[in-house]
Amino acid sequence: MAAVTAGLDRPHAAPVLGARAALAGTLRSELTKLRSVRSTYWTMTLLVLAGLAWAVANCAGEAAHWTAADRVGADPTQASIVGLALLGQLVIVVLGALALTSEYSTGMIRTSLIVMPRRGVLYGAKAAVLIAVIGVIAVVTSFAAFFTGQYLLRSTHVTATLTQPGVLRAVVATALYIVLSGLFAFGLGAILRSTAGAMTTAYGLLFLVPQLAKALPSAWYAEVERWLPGGDVVNAITGTQAGNPYPNLFSAWGEFAVFGAYTGVLLIIGALLFGRRDA
Amino acid sequence: MIEARGLTKRYGSTLAVDDLSFTVRPGIVTGFLGPNGAGKTTSMRLILGLDAPTAGTVTIGGRPHRHAASPMREVGALLDARAVHGGRSAYNHLLCLAQTNGIPRRRVGEVLEIVGLAGVAGKRSKGFSLGMSQRLGIAAALLGDPAVLMFDEPVNGLDPEGILWIRTLMRSLAAQGRVVFVSSHLMSEMENTADHVIVIGRGRLIADSGMAEFIARNSSQTVLVQTPQPDALVRALVAAGGTVSPSGDQNLEVRGLTVDQVGDIAFAHDIRIYHLAAARISLEQAFMELTANSVDYRAAQPAGPEHGKEA
Predict the structure, then answer these.
(1) Does the CA dihedral B7-B169-B117-B100 come out positive or negative?
(2) What is the ipTM of this complex?
(3) Could you tell me if A46 and A91 are in contact, meaning their C-beta atoms sit under 8 angstroms apart?
(4) pLDDT digit string (tens) for A185-198?
(5) How many separate domains does chain B show?
(6) pTM across the whole model
C-alpha cells in the first residue's frame, strides 16, 4: 500500500495512533460528545436541583416538626442526603443510558466506530468519561446537600459533622452510588441498545423489583432483600446510625459491593456484546 | 486499496453478500453498482468493520479496518448523512471525531471550509437540509486526509448543483491518487463519474471492469424497424438468427442483425418497411437487463407480448 500511495500528497493525514494516543484521543472525544449536547446539562442540573431541593424540604420542613423522641433516633446526615440518592439515581439513569443508546438511535455509532474501530477503546472511554463527569457532579452535590441540610437543622441541635463516625462514609458513598447507578444504566444501554428499553429496565430493577419482592413470604424476603439492588439499600448507604438498623441487609459498604457487582456484570456483558455485535 | 476475498455475509436465512472478491484501486473513481437490496451497503459495512463477515476477508491498505493503525488516515466514509446526533453543532460533531485520532482542531475548520459549511459551523445539525447533511458527512470523511474514501449513494436526494459538486469532488479526490469507492443504484449517475465499475446483484459479483469496456460490452447495437406486416417480418428475422421484441404499434426492435441485413431480409420476403434505423440501447437499459435476474423487489407489471409474437 505504501508503494501505491507514495505519490499521494497528504499533508493533513491523521497521525499514526499508538494504544495510549488512541485512548487519550477517544477520552477527549467522549468528553466533547457529552458537553456538546443539551441532555447532559438538563440531567446534571436536575441531579443537583433534586438533591438540594430534597435536602431543603426534608431538613427545613420536616425537622421543624420533630418531637423530642424523634430527635433521639434522628439521623441528620441521612435526612440531608437520602433525597440525592433516591432522586439522583432516577435522574442519572437517563444520562447513563443515553451515553450509548443515543448513538444507536441517531446512527452516530456507525460514524464513531468507523473513526475508532477499536471497540474496547471506545467503550472504555465512554464509561470512563461517564464515571468522571458524574463523579465530580455527584460528589459536589452530595457535600452541598449535606452542608445545606446541617445548616437548616441547626435550630434542632441535632446536626452532624464530617468527623462523626460514618458521616463522611455516607456522604461519599451516596455520590458513588449515583455513579454506580449511571454505570448500571450504561451497561443496560450497551446490552439493549435502546434508550426506552434501558431506562425501563433500570427503573424496573432499581424500583419495581424491590417493591415486588415485598410480596414474598417474609422469611424469604428477609433472605432475599440484601441481594436486591435499590429499595432499602439507599437507606443503608445514606444512614449513619450505630448498631444495625436494617437487619436484612449487609453493611453500607456490603450493599454497595452487591450493587457494584451487578453493575460490573452488566458492564462486562455490555462490553462483550459491544465488541462482537454488528453495529 | 480495498481488497475483498470471498466476502460473505449471512443475516439469518438471507445471504446479503455472497462470495464477493474484488479490488478497488487508487487514482480512479470506482462505481459500486447494483439494484436496491443487492448488498452494496452491507459490503461497505463489512469493509469498514461495522459488521463481521460470515466468511472471507476484506482489507483496507492491507489490514482489516478493525486493526487499522490510524483509522482516519486509512479511510473516510459517508454511509448515511443523517446518522449524526442532531443536537450537536456541526463543529462539535467534527471535533469529537477528529479528537479520537489526534487530529488537530484547526483541521475541523479546514474541512468545514472545503465543504462550504463554515458559515453554519455553530448551528445544530438537526436543522440542516439533506444537502447540508451530505456536506457535513463528507467533511467528516475528509478529516483525516485519508487514502481511501467511500461514499454510499452520495447523490440520493440532492439537487443538480449538489450532484455536480459531489461528482467534481470525487473526481478530484481520485486525481490526487486516492481510492474513491462510490455506490449507486443508477447507472446513468456512474456513467459520468466512474472509471471502473463493480456490479453486484443479490450479493454476487456480476461485473468488474473498466467503464469503457463495460459500455462497449453491454450497450449493443439494435435495429428499429416499422412495418405493417410485423407478423411476417418477425418470422423472417427470427429464422435469420435475430432476436426481436415488439416496441409499440408496428415497431420492432431487432438485435443480432445489422440494418443492412434487416433491409435485405424484408426485401427478400416482400415485406413492406416504413422505417429502418440503427440505435444503441442505453447503458441504463443494459444495466437493468444485466441485473434483471437479481432484483429482489420489483413492481408487478401487466403481462406484455412475448418475444416474436404478434404485436
Answers:
(1) positive
(2) 0.90
(3) yes
(4) 999 999 999 999 99
(5) 2
(6) 0.86
